[in-house]
Amino acid sequence: MAKDYTDKLKNVSEKFFTGIQPTQETHNIQEEHEVQEVYEAQQVQQTQGKKGFKMQRINMAFTPDNIDFIRIMAKIKGQTMTQFVNSILDQEREAKEEVYQEAKKLIEKL
After folding, report:
1. C-alpha–C-alpha distance, residues 78 and 76, integer Å
2. How far apart are CA 102 and CA 24, in angstroms?
3. pLDDT of residue 110
4. Can you tell me the distance from the alpha carbon of 2 to that of 8, in angstroms, rounded to the nearest whole number?
5. What is d(CA 92, CA 35) in angstroms, rounded to the nearest whole number?
6. Is residue 5 classed exposed, middle or buried when 0-12, 13-18 and 19+ CB atoms within 10 A define those classes?
7. 40, 46, 72, 110: which has the fewest C-beta neighbours closer than 10 Å?
């Protein structure tokens, strides 16, 4: 006759699985925190080697003169080409902050 281990299995599974399921609130807070971490890492371009942290990418075409300019100026400044182009965009965005904010509001209304 086979032994009945049903009660023992039930006790073991109750002990093992108790408290493992995260609550919905905990999950949402953790997810928000992770999104903020990814955004901050992207802002300072420190995503390399971090699982799940990817920079947003865009495929762009430049004229040969602009490519040459980007390469040379990035080398002079000791930056990557991406860092150099991002710094130019940062400067332009700061110089046109008011226009940028107004444009964002206009687009939201559409």
Report:
1. 6
2. 37
3. 87
4. 14
5. 26
6. exposed
7. 110
Tokens at 12, concatenated: 């073991």
Burial class (CB in 10 A: 0-12, 13-18, 19+), 42: middle
Condensed to tens digits (0 to 9), the pLDDT of residues 49-85 reads: 565 666 677 899 999 999 999 999 999 999 999 999 9
The encoded tokens of residue 41 equal: 């890492």
- Does any domain span residue 66? yes
Q: How many domains does the chain have?
A: 1
Give a yes or no: residue 43 inside a domain.
no
CA–CA separation, 110 vs 104, rounded Å?
A: 10
Cα(69)–Cα(53) distance, integer angstroms: 30
Whether 97 is in a domain gets the answer: yes
How far, in Å, are 11, 27, 43, 67, 84 from residue 87 at the CA level?
Answer: 61, 36, 11, 16, 5
CA distance 71 to 82: 10
pLDDT recorded at residue 2 = 61
